[in-house]
Design goal:
The chain has about 90 residues and is an all-alpha fold. It has helices at about 1-35, 50-85. Helices cover about 85% and strands about 0% of the residues. The radius of gyration is 33 Å and the shape is elongated.
Length: about 90
């Protein structure tokens, strides 16, 4: 009986030690190798929100114009197909 209890206790302790060492080494690896390669340390102060909103609005307006042009082209091509092939 004492053998089984000792075996269970040693198994739990060794599993805990293994897990702790594994997690510690992974954490150190991520701190040393993964974090050092990233240069994304931007904060809200570094980004001018008004400029970004202005850029997004300009892009949106350009995309709306392109959509209108494409719609006109599709309508024209649809009209040409109907006139030439159906009539």
């Amino acid at each position: 009986m004492i053998f089984y209890l000792t075996n269970i206790a040693l198994d739990i302790v060794s599993g805990t030690i293994f897990w702790t060492i594994k997690q510690s080494t992974l954490g150190i690896y991520n701190l040393v190798f993964v974090s050092s390669g990233k240069k994304n340390d931007l904060t809200i102060k570094d980004i001018n929100i008004d400029d970004k909103i202005g850029e997004l609005i300009k892009k949106n307006e350009i995309q709306e114009e392109k959509i209108i042009e494409l719609k006109k082209s599709i309508d024209y091509l649809s009209k040409m197909i109907i006139e030439n092939y159906i009539a």
